[in-house]
Amino acid sequence: MNIAEKPIAAIIGRRISTGDGIHLIANGYKKGVRLDTHMHREAQLVYAAKGTMQVTTPKGRWLVPPDRAVWVPALSEHAIDVLADIEMRTLYFELDWLQREARSHSLDAEFVVRVSPLLHQTILALFDDRGDRERTDLLLRLAMMELDQAEDSTTFIPLPREPRCRRAADIVLTDPTGDHEIETLAREVGTSVRTLSRLFSAETQLSFKSWCQRARIAAAIEKLSTDAGVSVKQLASDLGYASVPAFSHAFRQVTGKTPTEFAGKE
């Protein structure tokens, strides 16, 4: 399948002029909008200053609540699903600029970053359109410095490519709260339990059980990010956990925080 390249000039939104090499575009999207699979000639940092989105690439799926942003390299396929109304702020970097501003860690693979208060304010400041070239250059360099130490994988679900394993993964992702037994999934996709278990480990670097837990916790993060009124007790029940402590333990294993801490309610 050919993936369309989407030129910067075709993107609708509020544009901020920065000079050569960088393009800043602000957009608002409503819940339910899907930006189908596409790519850009430029690399980009995509940040939802408000709201929650999901970014899918051949490598995997990232849930991106407001305290995360996603780095997408140039010519990388990606699709974006809007899970809650978002105010998107995107920084597009031409390759020549990136080569001049090269940092110690690689920017040639997609990843999610935890947005620190400093990075948050830096991105917002870039969009206040003061027209001060020197200030903008400093803010862009500061943003790139923050990327050096902000990578975070807690909201990432790796997606297998082998057809049988991918079908099994899609079944789980369709209903991550369900009680999915590997024996049942193996029958459904036409393989053995041993083969499916081996494929999950080889293709996702996670055991089947750990992968399913990651998918379930991602569903919990999505709920926490899009429903401010949800209680941890109700969420634990909806996700099939026997108790709140069991849910909190599983949540902490993946994210390093309890659900309450992650939601910012403590």
From TrEMBL:
GO terms for MF: DNA-binding transcription factor activity; sequence-specific DNA binding
Domain HTH araC/xylS-type: 166-265
SMART domains xref list: HTH_ARAC
Keywords noted in UniProt: DNA-binding, Repressor, Transcription, Transcription regulation
UniProt keyword Transcription present: yes
Signal peptide (UniProt feature, chain positions): none
Keyword Repressor listed: yes
Protein name, UniProt field: Transcriptional regulator
Organism this protein belongs to: Bradyrhizobium icense
